[in-house]
Amino acid sequence: MITAVRSAARHSIRHSSRHPIHSRRCFAAQAAPEPPKIFSENEYPDRDEAPIITRSSASDVVKSKDAAHASTLQYSIPPSRSIGPTRPSQLPPNIPLESLEIPETKITTLSNGVRVGSMETYSQVSTLGVLLDFGSRHELDQFTIPSTNEVVSTAGVNHLMELLAFQSTKNHNSADIRNIMENLGGATFATSSREQMMYCVDVLRPNVKHAFHLLGETIKCPMVEEEEVEEMKRVMEFQLMDMMPQILVGEGLQMAGYGRLENGVLQQLGRPHFCTSEALPNLTARSVHAFREQHLLNRPEGIVVSGSGIAHDALVELAEANFGHISADPTNGNASDNRTIPSVYTGGEYRLETPPNPNPAKEEFTFVAIAFEVGGWHSPDLVPVCVLQTLLGGGSSFSAGGPGKGMYSRLYREVLNRFHWAESAEAFSSFHAESGLWGISGSCPAERSGEMTRALTDHFLKLADQLVTDEELDRARNMLKCNVLTQLESRLVLFEDIGRQILTYGKREDAATMCAKIDAVSKEDIREVVQKALLKPPTLSTVGLDISKVPKVEEVTQWLAQGPVHRRSWF
């Protein structure tokens, strides 16, 4: 109603400015029309007409003790909406806690090789989805389609497929899917990485079957029309223009750390994960179909159906109905085993100068990261590296503080609290099948970027030379366990953890086993991991408006050569 009144007022002002005398006469001669009554069924769901609202003054209020207890409701609640002793039919019956099974991960393999993993949490909302064992590392600049000998580019396809998720399918258009999911009380998600792709729906438990059917359509029979592809390519252009510097630094570490080999071959882990501006024009609907035919449609062993908050038998039944018909292509032989080519860590340097920020009030920072190679998902150093990352900790120069925020981590104490010019300093790690990266990143004003690079390098040398303290190690182990257990309380994280572990290891470790591995990490393990990492050449990545003050990777190499680890294969 306020909007309508304002609109009418603006119209009266414009009209009176053109004909002031005539407007005043008309206004005096006739009464102003009453504003239209706006009635919203959402605001008053139990009324057929809008309620009558009357104005009152302070003198109209009866000041008495009895009046204070009078009901202020404008209408009574109908019996259908009131809370009663009987259970509504749409809700499942209450079951005594003692009769419920203890939640545990259950895994089943279908006859065609599709794996199903789930954990029943007895919640009223279920999270379920599909994880696929392909990612941006499997893209090619030139791919020949076997059936037609047509050459297409699949570079950037995973980025495009992530945006095309839950668009038009064989039986529904994108608007239908959105409306259906809204009516089901659900939400959809899709994300891709260098090695895996994930599709997910989060929906009310009674509507799981219908939502999973839409999920299956999205994966099995998307239309991938040219109009949709062109629309999403425009979205990708905007994403490339507005990409955060932290993401650009991480991409630079991957491309420099797994650089081209001596023969000029671009390694899989060195490929950009996000579609580049050079590869964007070559992306077509045919590129998506060709990539799906190669990595998805004939590879049931690369499909994992995962769920949390759902009975395992129910999820197996849904997986059988939607993915049980997919069969391996016998003509491919062992071609699937050759899809993933191990990458070799090379070390190197990535430097990117960014254009000025259009907002002159925003301060420009230079971002620097130094990383070394560590083991991958199957390495025994995986857990020690995670403990080391937590021990270093770090974050932004601003934090609300409080317990559990990592304010006593080493980078907070010795970088952020020591150097006033440090905007951020944080440890990171990324793991892949055959290799991984571990390092420290930081940001600061451009004139301080040389000092920041030296400060990060000194921390690598200190870790390789001195054992961490008992207090630091205990705090890091406890914080890592706390983070793991807290994250697993989320049904979305639990669903993803089940699926990714099955896809990576073929099984899932429970929380007790993981906590035991964390507790087993010693100070000597931490130093050994760092010393082995420093035997490899470093990788330097820097992004910013002015990166001239950031040292070259050769200078960083000379600094590291002064440390306790003297024998270096790259020196």
Automatic annotation (TrEMBL):
GO terms for cellular component: mitochondrion. It comes from the Eukaryota. Residues 1-22 are annotated as: Disordered. InterPro entries: Metalloenz_LuxS/M16, MPP/UQCRC_Complex, Pept_M16_N, Peptidase_M16_C. GO terms for molecular function: metal ion binding. Residues 120-259 form the Peptidase M16 N-terminal domain. SUPFAM superfamilies: LuxS/MPP-like metallohydrolase (SSF63411). Residues 8-22 have a biased composition (Basic residues). Residues 282-480 form the Peptidase M16 C-terminal domain. Belongs to the peptidase M16 family. Substrate recognition and binding subunit of the essential mitochondrial processing protease (MPP), which cleaves the mitochondrial sequence off newly imported precursors proteins. This is Mitochondrial processing peptidase alpha subunit. The lineage of its organism: Eukaryota, Sar, Stramenopiles, Ochrophyta, Bacillariophyta.
